[in-house]
Each structure stands twice: as C-alpha cells, then as structure tokens.
C-alpha cells in the first residue's frame, strides 16, 4: 500500500497521509521514521490535517488509541 503524505507544520512530524479505503493513517516523524495507525476515522485524519499543532493533536487523539506498526524511514 502506498500512501501519499503531505507536509505539516510541526517540530516533530514531517508529514501525514491517509488511505480512506483501509482507514490507515500514516505519520512520518522527523526523529523516528514512518508509522501506520489502523482503524482511524476520516474525521480524525481531517482534524489532524487541519490542526495548528499536529504534535499536540497526536498526543491527545492518536497516541495509545490505535493499533500501529513502524514501516521504516523515508
């Protein structure tokens, strides 16, 4: 699966992408690489994409709430 990521304005996160068909959120962290989060609603992705503070949004709404896997560094 190839998910296109868009850059975000964050000190920790380089970019995010989403596949609506599989409800998969992909996040590229500047320090640790690329991770995929599963069963993430489109609404959560859209809020994440619009938030002025992606790092804070990630900590409050995504981290620890979804199954994930690390897929490497890009």
Write out key terms for the chains shown.
about 70 residues; alpha+beta; 2 helices; 5 strands; globular
The Cα radius of gyration reads: 11 Å
What portion of residues belong to β-strands?
25-35%
Q: What string gives the helices and strands in order? A: EEEEHHE
The gross shape turns out to be globular
What number is the mean pLDDT?
96
Major β-sheet annotation? 5 strands, antiparallel
- Measured between the Cα atoms of the first and last residue, the distance is 15 Å
Number of strands: 5
Point out poorly predicted stretches. Answer: none
Q: SS-based structural class?
A: alpha+beta
Q: State the strand order across the main sheet.
A: 1-2-3-4-5
Query: How large is the count of helical segments?
Result: 2
Please, how many domains?
1
Helix share, percent: 10-25%
Write the layout of secondary structure elements.
Layout: E1 6-7, E2 13-19, E3 24-29, E4 33-37, H1 42-50, H2 54-61, E5 68-72
Antiparallel strand pairs: 1-2, 2-3, 3-4, 4-5
Helix pairs in contact: 1-2
């Amino acid at each position: 699966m190839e998910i296109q990521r868009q850059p975000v304005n964050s000190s920790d996160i380089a970019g995010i992408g989403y596949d609506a068909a599989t409800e998969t959120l992909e996040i590229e962290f500047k320090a640790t690489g690329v991770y995929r989060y599963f069963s993430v609603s489109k609404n959560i992705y859209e809020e994440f994409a619009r938030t002025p503070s992606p790092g804070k949004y990630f900590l409050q709404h995504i981290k620890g709430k979804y199954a994930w896997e690390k897929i490497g560094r890009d």
